[in-house]
Predict the structure.
Amino acid sequence: MTALLDGLRVVEVSAFVAAPIGGMTLAQLGAEVIRIDPLGGNIDIGRWPLAPSGTSLYWTGLNKGKRSVALALDRPEGREIAAALIAEAGILLTNLPAAEGWMSYATLSAKRPDLIMLRLTGTHDGGNAIDYTVNAAVGFPTATGEDERPVNHVLPAWDIAAGLYLATGLLGAERRRARTGRGGEVTLALSDVAYASAASLGYLADVQVNGHVRPPLGNWLYGAFGRDFPTRDGRRVMLAAISNRQWRAIGKATGLSDKLALAGQAMGADLDDEGGRYAAREAIGAVLAPWFAARTLAEVRAALDGSGVLWGPYQDFGQMAREDPRCSAANPLFAEIDQPGVGRVLAPSSPLQPALPPRPAPRLGADTDAVLAEVLGLPADRIGAYREAGIVPRD
């Protein structure tokens, strides 16, 4: 299969989540992504969780399918090699400070006038930010939970979204260069990703137009019917109805259509309308809760699967890994790989299907010699001299 991005070469100089996800997204679609790190690794090389060997499962998870080059970036020779690789590739993806110095767009584009540089910052004016500080400011933690205390979530949503924006922006810039011959610097602020998302979902306009600030609702679905229900065997499931067809399917599958209709009448709510179901949510929940409480998860699954009901079980990571067929080799997304430093693990390819099979992340610096030879054409004796001088890894 010819990969979607076959023939595209990108240099990545990054750390943490967003930029590595951007690079991995491109690598999973067939691009040659060369990640450059300092000798010994960047700040994220040992981030948790760790394998028993001490290898970071975080780092290997975010760098699948890339090539790894390690250089003494604190020395002029190492920076010169990195700049040459960037010039040869013509595309740089980074989230490291690069406004001036050897990694600035002005410096690098002097070596490659049509250079494309994708640069992630914290805020639009170049300030520092991480996912958790951005998320605290953008309103979602105060709308999560059940009371006035803000609740952080463990998903770095803005990092993930920013990584996908970076990949999209890079492809857009590469397409423009193919049409016009012009490169350019494209910047993205992590905080802008979060603020744009909140505004696009209507939360900002709700304040401006209605003077309404969304309150914390626990596990209720805002503006429609949805909530979690405990089962007889101590599991929990999420149930939701967005469309009228999904709403009618709940009544039919549970045999509670008549009781649900009476609940709507008692509340004076039109249950054929999302807003009506939201207004009557407490009464609807009271009708449905005993049905779930009387059944095990397996019995709920047997009754609801294939019925048109929008539902799903709550699972921790262990249950997801052990019990869910969607998180197994039965799903074309996944396959086992032999990850250096870790062993055999189940790994995803690109969610865009059909996709290349998943490829492991390299050991830090494992591709240094090969990349310097293939991309820059350096002879073995010169690479050996760099090794003796401590510019490239010694082992």
